[in-house]
Predict the 3D structure of the following.
Amino acid sequence: MREFARVVPAPADLGTAVIGIPEGSDLTVGLRLEAVMEGVLISGVVRGTAVGECVRCLDPVSEEVTVRVQELFGYAERVHAAQEAGDDELEDEEAVLDGDLADLEPAVRDSVVTALPFQPLCRPDCPGLCSICGARLADDPDHTHDVVDPRWSALQAVLEQTSTADETKES
């Protein structure tokens, strides 16, 4: 068994369209490698900072992400022998050691992306943007618009024409 900790650059596409860990930013990885009968069991913790936009007001959002990672990497010889023997217990996408190397990126990606918020918010009570003009409602909580019911819009147009005609008669 061995334990180690490293700071590594984040791979590309470690997130979703609205929030993710930027490529090249620091990921702190603390791992434990254990030899088992089937291969090497790697488990540990990955930490990083995800950045994105609030889904309501589009302000920047930054959130610390800490996830647990665990993956069993089979010995290449054992996996190939089991596949040739037709062993149904092996998964099609079982991770395999490449000599002494284990590719942890897929396991890290799966853990980090599923831990990210589906709809990140700058704060839980974010009021968002006005659906009519796009103004930030947090800046002006009393923001309103005089909205005419669309069913009455034809009558509103007639009233505006009448008031314009009355003004020209008075002149």
The chain is about 20% helix and 30% strand. The chain has a mean pLDDT of 86. Residues 36 and 72 are 9 Å apart (CA to CA). The two ends are 96 Å apart (CA to CA).
